[in-house]
UniProtKB/TrEMBL annotation:
It comes from Nocardioides albidus. Coiled coil: none annotated. Pathway: Lipid metabolism; butanoate metabolism. GO terms for biological process: fatty acid beta-oxidation. This is 3-hydroxyacyl-CoA dehydrogenase. Residues 198-293 form the 3-hydroxyacyl-CoA dehydrogenase C-terminal domain. Keywords: Oxidoreductase. Residues 17-195 form the 3-hydroxyacyl-CoA dehydrogenase NAD binding domain. One of its GO terms (molecular function) is 3-hydroxybutyryl-CoA dehydrogenase activity. The keyword Cytoplasm does not apply. Belongs to the 3-hydroxyacyl-CoA dehydrogenase family.
Length: 294
């Protein structure tokens, strides 16, 4: 059941086949989550190399689990057998729900939602894992805003338990309940959040990460800040370790949205965050971010 809510939610729509759009870190993790829970997953990316990257990400995670004695080669083959990659969005015509996890860019997402509206079968749920863009606008880009909802996973998606579920004033109660039931079915904990930039977690988390960068700009050592937070607050990672997991490009996009929506002077993206993105130092995924992974 979703945290803080009443009776266990029920699936009001049959969900057998899940579509995922995107091939980045979040998309790859989300594909893994659904396939691990037994769903057939159709995932769509912009090239065969990107599709292969998703399989590579999942294979690496499963190999690590197998090496720890969790799961077998047979489980891995069965899971990978539930995946179908495609470079064509038309492949999503038969899925019961789509979760999109493409770049955090409103124009790209609006264009995608117009396509999903054209391609997906009637009644399919159109979910987004945007972390800061208005879901109401994505719904309005379709002729079926009642089927549009936010399903915000956290990185790394196979590990992090929380999913924020964001309805708009147009989202139907059945779609909301189905997504809450689906979230529980894939082993996650759902919380309902309002359609504001950052929802709950990112609205609290990213200003803190941004402040950590500003603290470092003032001369404090990155490693000292990371260690201080880990030692006192019980966080598994310090702010710079976490920024490198999330990706500086993603963090900058989120911080810009928070600044645009709330206008708090302190929300202005730290200069070093902007500079890291310009330098292509995006975090673990490029081998270097605030820390070096080479
Ligand atoms: N994919 C899949 N599994 C992973 C993984 C990954 N990328 N990274 C780690 N794991 C698994 C490991 O295999 C291990 O599994 P096991 O317990 O079954 O053996 C487990 O996670 C723990 O991993 P480790 O022991 O290697 O390392 P840690 O104990 O340091 O855990 C961590 C790694 C789970 C990433 C932990 O450091 C953590 O929780 N960090 C904070 C992450 C966080 O706060 N994320 C939210 C970011 S905000 C966000 O995502 C917003 C979005 O909008 C961008």
């Amino acid at each position: 059941a979703a945290a803080g809510e009443g009776a266990a939610p029920q699936l009001k729509h049959d969900i057998a086949k899940v579509g995922v759009v995107g091939t980045g870190t979040m998309a790859s993790g989300i594909v893994q989550v659904f396939a691990q829970a037994g769903y057939e997953v159709v995932y769509v990316g912009r090239g065969q190399d990107k599709l292969d990257g998703v399989v590579g990400y999942i294979t690496k995670n499963l190999d690590r689990a197998i090496a720890k004695g969790k799961g077998t080669e047979g489980d891995k083959d069965a899971l990978l057998g539930r995946l179908t990659g495609s470079t064509e969005r038309e492949a999503l015509g038969g899925v019961d729900i789509v979760v999109e996890a493409i770049a955090e860019d409103l124009e790209l997402k609006l264009e995608l939602f117009r396509d999903l509206d054209r391609i997906c079968k009637p009644g399919a749920i159109l979910a987004t894992t945007t972390s800061s863009l208005p879901i109401t606008k994505l719904g309005e880009a379709t002729g079926r805003p009642q089927d549009v909802i936010g399903m915000h996973f956290f990185n790394p998606a196979p590990v992090m338990k929380l999913v924020e579920i964001i309805t708009t004033s147009a989202t139907s109660a059945d779609v909301d309940e189905t997504v809450r039931a689906l979230t529980a079915n894939v082993g996650k904990v759902g919380v309902s959040a309002g359609d504001r930039a950052g929802f709950i977690v990112n609205l609290l988390l990213f200003p803190y990460l941004n402040d950590a960068i500003k603290l470092a700009e003032g001369g404090e050592e990155l490693a000292t800040i990371d260690a201080a937070i880990k030692e006192t607050a019980g966080f598994p990672m310090g702010p710079f370790e976490l920024l490198d997991v999330v990706g500086n490009d993603v963090s900058l996009a989120i911080q810009k949205e928070l600044y645009a929506e709330f206008g708090e002077p302190g929300f202005e993206p730290a200069a070093t965050l902007v500079a890291k993105v310009e330098a292509g130092e995006l975090g673990r995924k490029t081998g270097k971010g605030f820390h070096d992974y080479s």
